[in-house]
Structures are given as C-alpha cells and as structure tokens.
C-alpha cells in the first residue's frame, strides 16, 4: 500500500505555530455550513483534537528560522497545552450531553472560534496582534451568553459587549503608548515583545508605565481582575450551561498572559510606581471578593464565577511578585484551568440530573450519584488548594516566595488563602455531601462525563505529585521570559 508523502513545506507548516490558531477558526466556519447538530459535535471534537496535536507538536519540533508574527516560548506553551486539553474536553462533553436543539452547533462554533483567538493572543509576539485577538473574544463570548435567550441573558450579553468594548479601547491605547515610548530605541519593531524586552531599559519609564496601566485596565477587565470583574458573575449566571466556565477561563488566561508580558516590559524601566504593586493589590482584592461571593452564591453560574475569580487573583499575586514567583503563577493558571473545567463538567452533569441550577436544589449529590459527588468534590478541593494536587504546589511556591521576598505580604496572603479555601470547602461539603432535597432521584449513566473529569483530575495529580522534568524546566524558563 502506498503511503501519502507530505512535502517539506507542508511538514514545516504543520510544525509551525499557525495550526493551533487556524484549525479552530476554520473549524468554526465549517460548523456554520453543517446542518446536523450531531455531525457538528463530532467535527468540533475532531478539530479540537487536531488543534491539541498542533500544540503538542510545537513542544517537540524546534522552529526553523524566524517565527514571524507568532513566537512560541515556554510561557505561552505552558498555557496552550491545558487550554487545548480543556477545549477538547468541553467539545466531548457537548457530544455526550447535547445542548438544546439549535444551540449545540452554534455553541461549538463559537467555542472553537474563541479557542483559535485565545491561541492567537497567547502566541502573538506583536502586542497589536494580541490586542486584536482579545478584542474579538468579547463579542464571541457574548454570543455564547445570549444563547439562553430571555431578558437576563440578553442583558448580561449587552453588559459584556459594552464592558469588553470599553476594555478593548483602553487596551489599544496602552499598546499605542508603549509603542510610542519604545519607537525611538526599537524602530519598526516597537510592538514586538522580544524587542521590547531588549530595549525597554533605554525607553522613557513614564510612558511605559502609563501604557501598562491602560493595558492593566483593558486586558484586566477581560481577565476579570477586581475591580473590573463585574461582567463575569452576570455572564455566568445567564449562561445556558455551566460549561461557559471553559471559554471564560480560556479568555481569562490569555488576557492575564498579556498583562504579565506588559508588566515585564514596564518593570525593566524603573519608575515611581512598581507595576507589580498594582497586580498584588488586584490579586488580594480578587481573592477576598471570591471568598465573599462563594458564601453568597445561590446558583452554579455565580459559584463558578467566584471560583474563577479566586484563581485569577492567586495568579495575579504571583505575577505581581515577579521573579521566581512567576513559576507559581503560571502553574496556578494551568492548574486552575484544568480544575475549573472539571468542576464545570461536574456541575453541568448535576444540573441535568436535578433539573435546576440552584445550589440548594443540587445539594447532597452523594445521595443521587456518589461517583459524581466525589469527582466534583475533588475538582473543587483542588481549587481550594488541597494537597497533593497541582494548585497546592503552586500556592506553596507562592507563599514561599512571598515570605522570602516581601515578608509583610505573608499575613494578608495567608488570610486570603484561608478565607478562600474555607468558603470553597464549606460550599463543597453542602453541595456534595449535605442533606439532599426531597425530590432527589438516583442517577444512571453519565460514565463518559465522569471519565472526562477523572482525566482532568489525573492531570492535576500528575502535576502535583510528579511534575515531569520537561515541565519543570519549562516553568523555570517561563520565569525568565517574563521576569
């Protein structure tokens, strides 16, 4: 049998950074032409799997020549891999648990488009290209929120469009200011992150700090940093399914990654206000706000929004510290993405089982589906920082760096961690092992979703217990990319 021979040009393209970006975007367009929801769901799974393979190939095949607009490095590779994994898990979940007729195909198309755009934002070496990708994510996410129809969903979608539109304007202004500050010393490459890291010490510190402030306000809104996080609880509460936590987490990671790169550029040029101090304040405020929201949450959407807010706050604290703490922040972002996806899958299964999204209605899941209750408890326990899962390792590294570098930070950080963990575990106990409502029925099936959750939990366990040597080396290199 004759094999198919691929030309060197095709092989070079497959090993380039473009497949993880173009495959999801082309797949989203392809789903618009497919009439069958079932076939569309299978196509979405195939496209997500191919995109993940493209990301994995980037890690094994060294790039030849100048990478151009897209530049993979240890920092974005550590975020691309978990993003591809959870996107694939979300596509499989929609195949196993279809959305209402007419929504499934549109949901898969929008999710694939968001995956392609966030991959572009992560890989882009050009600040303007990253801004464009993030700016397009807002309307796509609003479409996902509006699929539920009804006044609350439309109101949440409009709020998201308006806030993200204003945030995109601020982010663009920040990119322009940084480019103007760097242009005298960087020339035409003033928007290249790699070039900015080389020349920012010679640029004017004032405009660089101002540009970072605009980017922090703009991209920080997309990342749901406190106090510019108000769109997140409304969007999650109005979403048609708890699975919206997956695209929200993808966008949040890409936006926070852009903020980290801008902070690294501004930090190299000394100014009267250290850029990391603002991230420290936003991160601690986010952790406190998340703990308060967890106590007050009454539905799965706001509960997941509070979980996401707390994890983003932890990463922001790590990035505010800078230096070796960046390793803890990147590990926290990757682990939180996996844990949040596992929790979203579990809560989606629970809402279908109980026929409602109120946490009171979902209480005592162990009486209906013990396997689901334990799996969901493990995912939420990971976000609470329980050992030996990966978030615990990230938090341990963060506390260690905080004590070594800023001892005064140990007390507020410790209080925030205790409050966040206590609120998460308290709600987990009532949700999974509390008294069930009187109408609770015993579950059947659901093995496919439980298997997906188990795979995500195994990834968290592997990162926490073993942390393979190549990944540990990538973490150390990531701290050098954006110190």
UniProtKB/TrEMBL annotation:
According to its UniProt record, where is this protein located? Cell membrane; Membrane
- Alphabetic keyword roster: Cell membrane, Membrane, Oxidoreductase, Transmembrane, Transmembrane helix
Topology term for the membrane: Multi-pass membrane protein
Q: What is this protein called?
A: NADH:quinone oxidoreductase/Mrp antiporter transmembrane domain-containing protein
- The chain positions of domain NADH:quinone oxidoreductase/Mrp antiporter transmembrane read 124-419
Q: Which InterPro entries match?
A: ComplexI-like_HydComp, ND/Mrp_TM
Q: Mainly localized where?
A: membrane
**Any single Pfam family the record assigns to this protein:** Proton_antipo_M
Please tell me the species this chain comes from: Roseomonas haemaphysalidis
